[in-house]
Amino acid sequence: MRDDSHKWAAPFDVSDVLIGEVDGKACRVSSASINRLSLISGTGVRTSSQIPLIGWPEIAPDGPFALSMRRDRILEVNGSARTDGWDEVNSVAISDMTDGYHAFSVAGSGALNLLNRGADLFLETPSASVARLTFGLPSLIYRTDETTYTLLFTRAQAVAAYSALSAALRHCASDG
Amino acid sequence: MSGTRLTSGGLIDRARRIDFTFDGRAMQGYAGDTLASALLANGTRIVGRSFKYHRPRGVWGGWFDEPNAIFSVKTPRGSLPNVLGTTTALTPGMEIKSVNAWPNARFDVKGALDLFNPWLKAGFYYKTFMKPDWHLFEPMIRKMAGLGALEPDLIEGYTSDQVHATCDLLVVGGGAAGLAAAEGAARQGKNVWLVEDHAALGGGLYRMGGTIEGLAPADWVTARKAAIENAGGRILTHTTAFGVFDHNLYGLAQQSALDVAPTLYRLRAKDCLLASGAIDRPVTFANNDLPGIMSLEAGIEYLGRYGVLFGKAIAIAANHSQTASAAARLRDAGAAVSLFDPANGDLSATGRRRVTSLRQGGRAEAVDCVLASAGWTPVLHLWRHAGGKLRWDDTLATFVPAQAPKGMAAIGAANGIFDLDQALAEARACATGEPYSPSPPRFNLTPTLPKPGAKGRQWIDFQHDVTLDDIALAERENYVSVEHLKRYTTLGMASDQGKISNIPGLAAMAALTGKTIPEVGTTTFRPPFVPLPLSLYHGPHSGQNFHPLKRLALEKLHRSSGAALGEYGGWLRPAWYGNQPGPDAAQSEARMVRAAGGILDASPLGKIEVMGPDAEAFVNFVYYNTMKTLKPGALRYGFLLTEKGVVFDDGVVFRMGPKRFVISSSSSHAEGVTGLLESWRQDGNDPDRVFVHDTTNHWSTVTVTGPKARNVTRSLGLDIDLSAEAFPHMTFRETSWNDVPLRIARVSFTGEVSFEVSIPASKVEALWTAITDAGEPFGVSPIGIEALSILRAEKGFIIIGKDTDGETMPHDLGFTLPRQKKSTAFVGDRGLHTEVANEPDRRQFVGLSVTGDAPLPTGAHLVEGADRRSFGIVTSSYISPNLNRPIALGLVERGAERMGETVTLFHLGKTYEATLTSPVAFDPDGARIHA
Q1: Among B603, B693, B612, residue whose Cα is nearest residue B658
Q2: Rounded-to-integer distance, Cα A57 and Cα B69, Å
Q3: Which of helix, strand or coil describes residue B204?
Q4: What is the distance between the alpha carbons of residues B819 and B816, in angstroms, rounded to a whole number?
Q5: What pLDDT score was predicted for residue B543?
Q6: Per-residue pLDDT at A175
Q7: pLDDT band at A176; cut points 50, 70, 90
Q8: Rounded mean pLDDT of B687-714?
C-alpha cells in the first residue's frame, strides 16, 4: 500500500502539441479529432463495406472510411450512426468505439522517421491491416496525406503512447 | 620508428595526436587507433591478468576475437567497465585501467595464485572449499572473481536511439567480398544496406599490402563505396550485426564513441549476404599464452591498419599458404622473421612476463613476438542464429557453411573462400545472380590441432584459463558432451564466447574420445555476437515508458481529489483519497461504505461483447456456469476455466439480447479474457457465427455502493425505477443520461446495495462529478481500491490470482452446483474429472478467525508436525473496521470439512493461531446486498 502518484506524469491535455526534428526533418505530434468510430465484425465485412477501405499505406479520404483491421473486422471512421449489437440484416457485429480510442496526428517530413523509432512501418511494405505495435503498444496507423499519419491507441494507453512519442522526439532532438 | 610505431602506413591520422594513460602511465596514440593498437605502439606487452591464475596476458587478436585486452576506461563523461581494447576507438583523455590485477597488470600481487594451479583445475570449486563451510570462503572467492569493477562515476542512464528499417539486401561485412557484393546488388536497383563494424571499410585488405584489381586497397575501397552510394545503397560503419531473429529481423548496433549510447537498428532484410570474414585459430602449444604471442592475422592487421610493428624478432608459427606473404610484409616493415611449421613437431614458448624464445625439437629462436595461426575459422554466428547448418571441412580444418537458412548466403572468407580473386568473383555472382564457376581453391594448410598429453601448459581458452589438461580432466570425469564440457570447464563462456577457443576445445575432446570433431558437435550460437550494453535494448523505454500502466479517463479528477495512485492489475488507480496514511484512510473509507456508501472508479472492469447467432451457445460453452438460461436484462456471476479446469477469471455476464452478451471480466484480466474467448471462438466454434469485441476502453464505470447508494443514484434523474422490487440484484438496465447512452447494473463486490453505472468514457467526468456531488449530503464520497479490498474480504469475495493460485478449481471455492446442473460441454469439464481435480486433500477456500488484535501476515503458512509441513496459506488478511477484528482468507487442505479447527500458522520465524471459519465474515445472510 503506497502512493505512487509522483512516479507517473499526469495525463496530457488534448491541446498539447509536440514539435521537433527527427533526422533533421520537422515533425509535429498533436491529438486528432474523430467524430465516430464503429467496430464492425463479420464474414466478408471487408469486401461489403460501402465506404473506402483503408489498409497500409493507403491514404484515407476526407469523408467516412473504414480501417481494415483483420480479415473479418473493420473500424469505421466518421461513418453513419449505427446501433450496437448483432445486425441481422448484414450479419455483422457492431460496437461503438468512439471513446475507446485516442487519436494522434503525426505530421511533417520527419513523421515516418519518428514512427520508425517505435514501429515496423514502411511505405514499401503494404499490409491489409492497419494494426501495428507502436512503442510496444497496440495501435492502428493510417495515412491522411503524404506526410501525415493518424495513430489510434486505446484510451487507457494514450498517456503511455504520448509519453513514448514525446520521449522519442526528445531523444532525436538531443541525439542521445 | 617510435616505439613500435612505423613512421608511415596504416589508416591512422598522424597529424592528430591523442594523449591517454594506461595504469597511470602517460602515453600517446593517434586518431584512428584502438586502445589495443595504441598500447602496442607504446610497447605495452602486458595488458591484463587472466581470470583464474592471474597470468600476465598480452593482446592476442586484432578485433572482436580478442580475449585478453579488457579494460576499465574513464572518459571525460565517466567510467565504463569491460571495454574491449581491440574494438574501441582511442579518444583524447582516456584513462585506461587493466583489470583483474592489483596494483597493476605489470605487477599483480595475486599473480602468486599461478603457483597453486595444480589445485585449481577445472571444476575445482565443485570439489574444494567444502570444509568447514563453503560460506567461509565464499566472500573471498566472490571478491576475487569477475573482471573489472563498477566505478562511482559509471556512465549509465544514457539512452540508445532505436530505429526500425527495411531493405532488400543486407550485406554483413565491408571487406572485399562484402563491398563487391553490395555494389553489384545496388547497381541492379536493390535497396542495399552494407554494415561494417570497423570505422573504415576494407576488411583484411590493408593487411597484405599490394593492389586489388590494379588499385591500392584504399583507392579500391573508395571506388566501391562511391559506387554503392551512387546506386542508392546505404553504408553503416561502426556497426555490428549482432543477431538474427524471427521473420528476417537483424539486430544492428552502431557505436559512434565509447561513451555515447549506440544506436539500435531493427532491420527487416529480405535477403542477407554474410561477408563476415574469418578469424585466426590459435596454435595450441606449451606456454602459448605468454605476452608477445598473438594471432598472425592480428600481427599483420596492426601493421597494415595502424602502422604498428609489434616485434623486431618475430617467429611465425603457421603453415598455410598465406604465411609466406605475411612474413614478407613483416620483413618489409623491418622485422627479422623466422618460420615454424606447427605440423613439424611440438612447439613450446619460453619466457616469464613476455615470450623470449620459441622452440621446436632441437631448434630454438630468440624472439620478442610469436605470430601463430592454425588456419582460418569463418565467422558464422549469424548463419547459425538464422538456422543455417555447418559442415566440417577436413582440408581447412574448420566448420564451413552447409545448408543455408532461407534468405541468407555466405560469401568470401565466411564461406571458406580465402583467395581474394575467387572471393570477389563469388561475391559479385551471388549478389547479381550471374553465373559463377568456382575455380579450385589455392589456399591450403596442414591441419594442426591440439594434442592431448603434450608437455607443458597449453591454453585453450585464454580469458577463462582453460587448458588442454582441463579438457582432459573433463573427459576423464565423463563430461564429454560438448555442452557439459563447456559448463564444467567454462570453455567458451568468457566474454569472447569462445570465438577462438571453441574449435581447439572441440578438437581436443575429439582426440580424447576418439571421435571426429563433427561428432563432438558445437555449442549453440546465440545473440548477441558481441557484448552490448543493456541500454541498447531498452532505448528510450525507461522509467514510466518501460512498463506503462493503463490510465483512467478520470485520473485528472482523482488527482485533484487528493487520490493516492498505485498500480492495480496493470492500471494506475486510486488506492485511497485524502491526506491520512494509507492504512488509516482505507479503514475510514471501508467504514464509510457500510455506514453510508462509497463511490468507486470501476472503469477497468472488462466489457467484452460477444455477438452473433452462436453467441448464446458460445458463452454457455466457455463458462463453467450455465449461461444459456440467462434472460435479457439479467446478469450472472460465473467462472472461466482453463482446459485443466483451473479458474482463469471470474466475472459477470450481461445478457443484452438474444444474440448479444457483455462479459464483465475482472479488472486486470480484460485482455486475457478477450484472448481466451478469441482462441475458443476459432477452435471448435464457427468463427463466422460469433464475434468478440473488447469495448472496455469505450466505457467507463462508476460504482455507487452502500446503504445510501440508491439515494445517490436516484439523484441522476434516470428514467428507471431504482427500487429493489423493480430493479433487483443481478439485473441491469439500459437508458440514457444527458442524451448519452448509459448502462446501469445492480451487482456488488462489497456486499452492499450497489449500482454500477457505465457511460462512454468521454462523458465520465460529468457523471463522476454529478455522483460525487449527489453523494456529499449523504456522507458518501470516493473510495479507493484498498477499502474495496477490505470490504470484499469481509464478504469472502475472491480476487482471482490473490485468493486463487494456479491449481484452484471452482469446487475448491465452494462452487459445485453449477457443474452439477450443467448439461452441456464446457471449457475445463474434462479437467474437473481428473484424479488431481478430485483428490481429497485439495486446498479449499476458507476464512480464518484470529485470536487477538494482530492480523495474520498474508502469505503465512498453516503448518503441522515437527517439520512444520504446510497444509495451507493465508491469501488475504486485513483488519476489518466493521467487525473490529482481524479477518483473513486462505486456501487450506480439506478446508471445508475442518471448520472450527484451531490451526497453527508460521511466518518468518513467528507462529500464530487461528480458527478455520466460513469465508463470509460480514452479513452472512446477504440481506444488505438485496436491500
Answers
A1: B612
A2: 49
A3: coil
A4: 6
A5: 86
A6: 53
A7: very low
A8: 98
Q: How far apart are CA B567 and CA B585, in angstroms?
A: 17
Task: Enumerate domains of chain B plus CATH numbers.
Answer: 11-151 (3.10.20.440), 162-279+377-432 (3.50.50.60), 282-374 (3.50.50.60), 449-529 (1.10.10.1100), 550-604+698-791 (3.30.1360.120), 608-694 (3.30.70.1400), 796-917 (2.40.30.110)
- Which DSSP symbol is given to B347? E
Q: Can you tell me whether residue B57 is helix, strand or coil?
A: strand
Calculate mean pLDDT across residues B279-303.
Answer: 97
Determine the distance in angstroms separating the CA of B872 from the nearest CA of chain A, rounded to an integer: 24
Residue B593: pLDDT band by 50, 70, 90 thresholds? very high
| Contacts for B865 with CB less than 8 Å, ≥ 6 apart | none
Q: Where are the domains of chain A?
A: 20-170
Closest chain B residue by Cα to residue A164:
B545
Cell of A110: 520527419
Size of the A and B interface in Cβ pairs below 8 Å: 174
Say whether B551 and A158 touch across the interface (CB within 8 A). yes
In angstroms, the CA B900 to CA B883 distance is: 19
Distance of CA B785 to the CA centre of its chain: 33
Identify which of B649, B770, B743, B750 has the alpha carbon closest to the alpha carbon of residue B705. Answer: B750
Distance from C-alpha of B85 to C-alpha of B47, rounded to nearest angstrom? 9
- The answer to whether residues B706 and B753 touch, using CB atoms and an 8 Å cutoff, is yes
B691 CB neighbours in chain A (<8 A) are 41-42, 72, 93
State which residue of chain B sits closest to A7, comparing Cα positions: B544
- Beta-carbon-side half-sphere exposure of residue B817 (alpha carbons within 13 Å): 3
Which fold, A20-170?
Gyrase A; domain 2 (3.30.1360)
Q: At what angle do helices B670-681 and B615-622 cross, to 10 degrees?
A: 120
